Amino acid sequence: MTDHLSRHWPAPAKLNLFLHVNGRRSDGYHELQTLFQFVDYGDSLDFKVTDTPELVLHSDMGEVVPDSDNLILKAAKSLKEASGYSGGAEIWLTKVLPMGGGLGGGSSDAATTLVALNALWQTGLTKQQLAEIGLKLGADVPVFINGLAALAEGVGERLQAVTPAEPWYLVIHPQVHVCTKTVFQDPDLPRNTPKLTVATLMSNPWRNDCESLVALRYPQVANALAWLIEYAPSRMTGTGACVFGSFDTQQNALDALAKMPPHFDAFVAKGMNISPLEQRLRQL
Predict the structure, then answer these.
(1) Which of 69, 140, 186, 188 is the catalytic position?
(2) Could you tell me the fold of the domain covering 168-272?
């Protein structure tokens, strides 16, 4: 690795502080209202700009998907095509977020790739243009590109910046992979929560419309929720499998983590309304 390496571009996890399913659309997608907040924990990417056009991904993951389907390489290729950039990049991924956990890991990796290479290649695309590229890669990619805690509507692409409290979270991964598509195709998923105004959404008690169904289908998720509720207000994020509890202090979250059963994976992280990626970008 040479001096031309641009290191430590964060790909943070997100939490859905609430998730309402308002209905199913004619294209099969669902209308949602959800609140995204970032945490100071996630994957990390390093980039090296190359004169040759190749895109190369190095990863420490055992379960890298084939190159053609890898969201990081798809993101880099999409940016090259949109901008007409002729060079390439080598990318190193340090993966810590679980797959299928509801933390947005793959989408966050793709967003960080778009944001970092747009800066390093000096391709000059706006955040809006990057978000349009990102939306084709996944519904959660635009919120990571935008970098601000947001209320999302539609399939998750219509974003409005909000500033919820930034507590400490204990996030538990119950060692099970939940497929988003399977959850949204389940006939028993509630799909009739009325759309609410921003003021109502931000002031009412928060809930996740997918949580009861996923807890029923995946006992590991139910067990994690049942354990965590003893220590803090807790919910599932996204379509699962991860669940989180909010704490006033880091120490309280760490105290709960210390009592956790050994069959869960978990981490403690701070809620952030400005994402670590956005903060990294502002340092350039």
Answers:
(1) 140
(2) Alpha-Beta Plaits (3.30.70)
